[in-house]
Amino acid sequence: RGALIKPWVFTEIKERRHWDISASERLDLYKKYASMGLDHWGADARGVERTRVFLLEWMSFACRYCPIGLLERLPPKMHHRVPPLLGRNELETMLASQNTADWVKLTEMMLGPVPSSFRFTPKHKSSAWEYNASNG
Questions:
Q1: Interval 71-109: pLDDT, tens
Q2: Nearest to 27 by CA among 103, 134, 98
């Protein structure tokens, strides 16, 4: 699960260091994933949609990553959830967003515009119980 949030964790382990990966380097990982998805599922409408959904599912985990440069304490712990954060630039803030609309915008940078009928709910949230003040 940790590699879903931080796929470069194995590089960190191998090199015995904490990597303060930039937002543009993280976006490059998404671009590579999108390219491989299109190679695998095809570049037709169905392949693009399938690639987008898998990419969005990954983003629903990866958004939990907090860049090393923004942490108050080292070493970082994978299980710690950080509050919503303001990144060092707009892209980093977007990558850390919990808002699915921001993730969709990121996929549009790689896969083009989404159809007007497109809706996305992360699988791990689709049947989750949502707190409602009226429920107590």
A1: 777 776 767 667 778 889 999 999 999 899 999 999 999
A2: 103
Give per-residue pLDDT as tens, 109-118.
999 999 999 9
Cα separation, 80 vs 83, whole angstroms: 10
Query: Long-range pairs for 6-10 at CB < 8 Å and ≥24 separation?
Result: 6/62, 6/65, 6/78, 7/62
pLDDT band with cut points at 50, 70 and 90 for residue 25:
very high
CB-CB contact of 105 with 43 (8 Å): no
Pinpoint the alpha helices (H) of the chain.
2-5, 9-15, 23-41, 45-62, 90-95, 100-111, 123-126
C-alpha–C-alpha distance, residues 75 and 54, integer Å: 30
